[in-house]
Design the sequence.
């Protein structure tokens, strides 16, 4: 991948962090209005547009190459079930690379599944190589007060290889 293409991918990930255009819903008197929460406070408890988290995990490319993964995640909820976000994650140890991805997530109850196209970068100054990846993932969230703790299982498909990522996110909606 050329330096220009790599920088465009990085800009896309940064843009997804910064975007968050509000979605406006028109009020109407149809049947949907009877399902609205009774008060603003009740609506705030049921649904938050933004979610941010840290990720701590373990990455395994094969039986002998393993690493610790640390990252940050952000999601902007389009509605209670669908979200788009950004992931920045560094793996170090036997493996040493960064992952930048844009997850498209579907959430139902405590379960979340997502697909995240992105890039795996060996060196942030682009002295190393980079490869396109697709991350498929799933997590189950436990609420602890205002926080959410979610065990997570991901599989990255990159350069014909599968990379297993297992960890936990600790996040908060706002």
Sequence:
């Amino acid at each position: 991948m050329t330096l220009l293409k790599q920088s465009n991918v990085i800009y896309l990930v940064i843009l997804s962090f910064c975007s968050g255009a509000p979605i406006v819903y028109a009020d109407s008197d149809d049947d949907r209005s009877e399902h609205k929460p009774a008060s603003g406070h009740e609506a705030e408890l049921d649904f938050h547009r933004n979610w941010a988290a840290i990720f701590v995990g373990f990455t395994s490319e094969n039986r002998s190459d393993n690493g610790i993964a640390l990252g940050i995640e952000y999601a902007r909820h389009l509605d209670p079930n669908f979200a788009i976000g950004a992931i920045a994650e560094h793996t170090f140890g036997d493996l040493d690379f960064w992952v930048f991805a844009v997850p498209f997530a579907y959430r139902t109850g405590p379960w979340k599944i997502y697909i995240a196209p992105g890039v795996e970068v060996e060196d942030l100054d682009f002295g190393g190589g980079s490869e396109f990846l697709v991350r498929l993932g799933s997590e189950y969230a436990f609420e602890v007060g205002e926080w959410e703790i979610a065990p997570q299982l991901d599989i990255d498909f990159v350069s014909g290889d599968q990379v297993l990522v297992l960890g936990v996110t600790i996040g908060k909606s706002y």
